[in-house]
Hints:
Blueprint: E1 6-11, E2 17-21, H1 37-43, H2 61-66, E3 68-77, E4 80-87, E5 90-100, E6 105-112, H3 124-137, E7 142-145, E8 148-149, H4 155-162, E9 166-174, E10 178-186, E11 194-199, E12 202-203, H5 208-221, H6 230-237, E13 241-249, H7 255-275, H8 279-282, H9 285-291
Parallel strand pairs: 1-7, 11-13
Antiparallel strand pairs: 1-2, 2-6, 3-4, 3-6, 4-5, 7-8, 9-10, 10-13, 11-12
Helix pairs in contact: 5-6, 5-7
Amino acid sequence: DRRVRSVSIAVDGTGQVEIADDGPGCSAVPDERGTTALGVLTSRLFGGWGGLRWWPGGLPWPCVNALSTRFEVESHHEGRLARTAYEHGHLVDPPAIVGGTSRSGLRVRFQADPAIFTTPALDLPHLESRLRDLAWLAPLLEVRWQGKSLPGRGGLPTLVSANGAKDLVHATHVSERFHIDLAFGWSDDGAPPVGSSFRGFAPDRDRVAEAGLWDGLLAAARRDRPALSESLVRELLSPGLRFAIHANHEPDGCAGRNQLIERRLIAKLTRDRLCYAGRLGHFGLRRRLESASARP
């Protein structure tokens, strides 16, 4: 099973989007019922196959198909080149093998339907920002935007370092249901906190992961000074804080419970790395906390 190692995204002057990967591609050979995997992928919900069957944090292909003036897919799979196309969600070119190929992968082109979208123009800065997030969250995947490779090698620790943090703390938790990647540190500039957190490949809009980070910082600060208030700990530890958190868990219909578990896991990772590795003094945080004792 060949994995995707590279994905490229480009938008031309007319607003047409092209996405290509180097994954296994998708078969256009009909089965005994005359159905092709490529046809299922492009027209049926939950018909995933191959590489780019889902765009992280976005819509499955049949939805994009229905919302586009034209939707084209080119597949390189097991030595066969296949194509299919739709217009306004209707099939105009059925999946067909059109030649041979020496590579593998998928290429998709589509353009938003102005009859559906009142403002079909894409927000390119926002799109680039999301792709940069993806590059950091999937450091083994090369992400190219408008022909240029986006930084992402090294994952979250490199991202936090790029934001000015020094002497990073990096911790991970991997279990059957939860996967958490956490990196944080402090810069010397004393600027307000800068960080990002994600659930899956989408921003953590509920900020559960960030709340877990602060729970862990509070627990570490109170280890020797249990009387410290949360507001004072935030005041002391906020300057220069840099962080990035990626949390993922298997969906089971219990979102509230999973978020609570996620928050507790992140808090424990944070506390343990600061307390049991002696990092409070290393970051100069102990000195900040000690300054609190001089306050009335």
